[in-house]
Design brief:
The protein is an alpha/beta fold and about 200 residues long. The protein has a single domain, classed as Nucleoside phosphorylase domain (Rossmann fold). It has a five-stranded mixed beta barrel, surrounded by four helices. α2 runs parallel beside α5.
């Protein structure tokens, strides 16, 4: 997503941060941004693998909720729940409504984005996530961590993801995934610009 980051900077969008991959870097970057810039809201963009059937490459998933798929805190907690926190983090309602009102160039979906420090590579991986969250649409490595930090600081949050891969067809997924990185930044930037312009 480096090229999207550079495009946003060139477009004069302030408060742009490139977090890095994974929950720890996402939480670090979000905390630094909140404490330094005091943003009105945080909108996170990136890519995610599909776990729900029917999603295709470059479809856009807007996270109505985010949740961890790789957390379990023992007895008294449900899978995905950190003790003292909800199992799922809700997106800011106003940001969500605005995002879903846009006329996107790609198919737009809304639902649950799951987060974990794992790259899912098989239908069995998808099935494990769906065993915890039957309504999950996609999995990434950052959204829920950012949502948790935003909840802590009371900052409105929304995440959207472009689908990078699907395990419906392994051969198709391999071919499409190679092409994905040539196109993701432009598609993601286009949707983000629509969203910012509408806010």
């Amino acid at each position: 997503m480096a090229s999207e980051y550079e495009a946003l900077r060139r477009a004069g969008v302030s408060g742009v941060v490139k977090s890095g991959i994974g929950k720890a870097d996402a939480a670090r970057a979000t905390t630094e941004m909140i404490l330094r810039d005091r943003p009105d809201c945080i909108i996170n963009s990136g890519c995610a693998g599909a776990v729900a059937p029917g999603l295709r490459m470059f479809d856009i998933v807007v996270g109505a909720q985010t949740a961890y798929h790789d957390v379990w805190c023992g007895d008294g907690s449900v899978p995905g729940q950190i003790q003292g926190l909800p199992q799922r983090f809700d997106a800011d309602p106003a940001l969500l409504r605005t995002a879903l009102s846009l006329q996107a160039a790609r198919p737009l979906h809304s639902g649950l984005i799951c987060t974990g420090d794992q790259f899912l590579t098989t239908p069995e991986d998808d099935a494990r996530v769906l065993g915890i969250y039957p309504d999950a649409l996609a999995c990434d490595m950052e959204s829920a961590a950012i949502a948790q930090v935003c909840r802590h600081y009371g900052v409105p949050f929304l995440s959207f993801r472009l689908i990078s891969d699907s395990h419906d067809s392994h051969a198709e997924a391999e071919a499409s995934y190679r092409d994905f990185w040539e196109r993701i930044a432009d598609d993601s930037f286009s949707f983000l610009k629509l969203l910012i312009d509408k806010l």
